[in-house]
Amino acid sequence: MSRGGSGFIGQSLSQLLYRRGHKVTVVSRHPGESRITWDEVSKRGIPACDAVVNLAGENVLNPFKRWTPQFKDEVTSSRIETSRILALAISQSESPPRSWILVTGVGYYPPSRKQEYSEESPGGDADFLSRLVKDWEAAGQLPITDHNPKTQLVRIRTGVVLGRTGGALPSMLWPFRLFLGGPVGSGQQPFPWVHIEDLCRLLCQTIEQEGSGGGILNAVSPSSISDTNSDFTQALSKALSRPAVVPAPAFAIRALLGTDRAVMLLEGQRVSPKRTLQSGFTFLYPDLASALVDLVKT
Ligand code: NDP
């Protein structure tokens, strides 16, 4: 079962799960085939299933939405309320799932060009995004009840998810194709990222693996520990055979997105997938060159 399953990551995950023989029910604001709505979950709880994955969330970087208090509330509540409702439904279920997976972000760790972070690193108090991730992850905590289910809670903190059909990459491609691509701001900010296929494979492993004990997993490529925005720009330029000489200046990004959101593009975190690798997961796309060559090929 997947909440937010109609979005970019949710659709890719559903396809992979179908291919692996699983059945998927999407929880959505909009009713439809193989879907249940929020109201239905609130009234009747969740259907019997092996795993619940929360992928719901208003798009933080939607350039068409101004960074108003109402939009900030929507960004926050679409993550926290959905996590809280699902955690409650799981705790009240007669046949609770084995896994409850929250997909959050590496924005939990404070932006820094020097500091290296793994799953054990502290965070959650640096800026709007890191506080959001802290509260989002806390909202997913299963309430203590008399019949507390033996459900493992896994928090997957993902970097920028690179894919053909959604997320940040498609909107970055057209400037490059028009010879207008270049680094964002100084280009020296860390660029933690993961290929959509690797993220979905990690989610599948987490759903299918019994007894991993839950906890935090960073979904970032191994090279993310040292990749910068400039490295990403150069690798994209090479994969597309286009120059990368037109930078997007920091002031323009701030003017377009507002200071809180501009931080997400102008700063970053050096993150390693230490515990993810220890879990036995292997990345198909461990570096930018292999990921971008795959993603831009026609
Ligand atoms: P999408 O924007 O593609 O999909 C998000 C889903 O959330 C939609 O399917 C929609 O479902 C649901 N949704 C949107 N707004 C609301 C709302 N106001 N209330 C309730 N549900 C809402 O996002 P992604 O697939 O890219 O991301 C999924 C999750 O992963 C998000 O929480 C995101 O923050 C997180 N993440 C994504 C990253 C990325 O690079 N893509 C990086 C780090 C974290 P419906 O319309 O069917 O209700």
TrEMBL record:
What InterPro entries does the record point to?
DUF1731, NAD(P)-bd_dom_sf, SDR39U1
Pfam families reported for this sequence: DUF1731
Instruction: Tell me the domain of life.
Output: Eukaryota
Domain DUF1731: residue ranges: 248-295
Which NCBIfam families does UniProt cross-reference here? yfcH
Query: Would you tell me the protein name for this molecule?
Result: Short chain dehydrogenase/reductase family 39U member 1
